Amino acid sequence: MQLVITMSRRYGTGASVVAKELSERLNIPVYDKVDVEEEIRKNAFDTEAEVIRGLASKPCIILGRCASEILKEQSNVFNIYVCADKEDRIQRIMKLESLSYDDALKRITETDSEREKYYYQHTGRTWGDVSDYHIILDTSELGIENCADILIRYFEKMQYI
Length: 161
Hints:
Layout: E1 4-9, H1 15-26, E2 30-31, H2 33-43, H3 48-55, E3 60-63, H4 67-70, E4 77-83, H5 86-97, H6 101-123, E5 135-138, H7 139-142, H8 144-157
Parallel strand pairs: 1-3, 1-4, 2-3, 4-5
Helix pairs in contact: 1-8, 5-6
């Protein structure tokens, strides 16, 4: 199977770490907002959706950008939602970005709000609705370092890889 993974996430969950680990283990690229915007500039695509469909023509991991909704008709797409306890997210952002508690909380609140609005604006759907995902990973419960292992084992069992 030409596996395409979409990964939606709350800010500060460590989803990019999970995506990077999966990328290395599956030997497929990870694309995020910066990559999608670069493709638009380089190749004169009209929309992010066109870029995402193009990127998904080969195995890859796409972080955010409503990819789960854009690619919902493709049978080779596996949609993941990554969440974590707010306190864990705050501590992670404080450490990663050298922010105070209040500044990290503000950044998380603003970023999650922006993502929620973006998703609704582009899909008309609620961001984080469990019915849109094949699996939900809680990095507070599972540990960021375990999530890639869980996914790899699942993909092997289901013979996706």
